[in-house]
Amino acid sequence: MIDEERDELLARLVDGQALPGDEEALAADSGLRDELELHRALRSRLAIVPDPPGPDVRDALIGRALDELAPVALDTDTEEKSDRTVRSLHGRRPAPKGAWMAAAAVLVAVAIGLLSLTERSRSEQFMAGEEAESLAVADEMADEEASAEAGDMMGAMAEEDDSADSAAALEREAVDGDAGFVWPPELDGCAGDLEGLIPIGGDIRFIDDGPTGLLVELTDPAQPGAPRFVQVDSSTCEITEVDDADR
Amino acid sequence: MVPPPAASEDELLRRAQTGDRAAADTLLRQHYDRVYAIARRITGNDADALDATQDALIAIVRGLPRYDGRSAFSTWVYRVTTNACLDELRRRRRRPLPTEILPDALSTGPETRWEDTLAQRDELDTGLLQLPEQYRAPLVLRDVVGMDYAEIAAALELPPGTVRSRIARGRASLANALTGNQTDPLSRQRERDD
Lengths: 247, 194
Known about the structure:
The complex is a heterodimer. In chain A, a hairpin with a 2-residue loop joins β3 (213-220) and β4 (223-233). Chain A has a 5-stranded antiparallel β-sheet with strand order 1-2-3-4-5, with no helix packed on it. By secondary structure, chain A is an alpha+beta fold. Helix content of chain A is 55%, strand content 14%. Chain A has helices at 3-14, 22-27, 30-47, 55-66, 69-74, 97-127, 135-179, 191-195, and strands at residues 87-88, 203-210, 213-220, 223-233, 238-242. By secondary structure, chain B is mostly helical. The N and C termini of chain B lie far apart (69 Å). Chain B is elongated, with a radius of gyration of 19 Å. Chain B has 11 helices and no strands. In chain B, 70% of the residues lie in helices and 0% in strands. Classes of the chains: A alpha+beta, B mainly alpha. At the A-B interface, α1, α3, α4, α5 and β2 of A face α2, α3, α4, α6 and α8 of B.
């Protein structure tokens, strides 16, 4: 009988699951009987666990756990995991580039509209002005107006440039933000793998160590009450789904 | 006055799942000793056992609304507890392991009974901690909680045959470690795997 067979035979005998022939094998081998006695003693010894701490500690542990009951039972969609170590990434996944470009286009259109309204108003005022003024004065005013308009135009153009710059800056920020989550050091190498999991507008939280790696919660604005949980092996970046109910 | 009859576990569960604190409290108290026992044997010391017990109780409460009854409630509780213990071990992995068992200190006279030998030693915890977790967890569920192989298989999501062999190897390895036997079944297994 090889050792593995012997171990399994002993386990069957200790656990009361003997197969036909096991008792005969035991009867024929005194060494096996000694081992069986040892394994039975070991099992009995293992079953004797040091007494748990007193009732005060028990009550405190249970009370602390029950504090989690109300939010879980009354509203499972907004379940908080307050006792876990949560490391926020300081930001949500930004909106796609198109949204920023559309916002920039709206800003430019508004600036141009305001500029043309101002120009029309000034022109009407000028036409309705006093006719007694001399042509020279009119010319002078016209020059001043032209100068002012030129200045306004330059200002407006500069404003447009500023708007465009702001939009570009926002867009850059969006793009930078897309690739710039603040990852915990142990997951820095897996950032690319994890970013692919984050839904648009969604969030990601690092909870703490799971059975096989860091536990990560992913929320999707389309499914606010149903976060996904994955575990990430920081050494291989292997990502596995986790059912949090079983943890 | 005659006290009201005790509610069944199913009834307690139903009430706890709807937020009944008293029902949840009763359920936790019913399982507390075994949750602690699993935690104590898997983590190997009182402090970590308390932390793991707290984590397990919280996980149980949080998971109550999602417990679907596919396995026995106790099986589910012990599964959650085992996971909480393994999590605790990983968090505390940086802590040094207890001193290795010294064979000289374990030598026994011919008249010594195994029960006496094992009972005298705190090395049981150390021996358990030296078992890889995949052997320790099923052994604890079997020998501490008394779950049968099928329940352990369900709790650990392992095939029953794997549970059986891990218990056999784990128990043999622990026995050898405690008696100073240098033939470690897990070493044999590793050599064969290599």
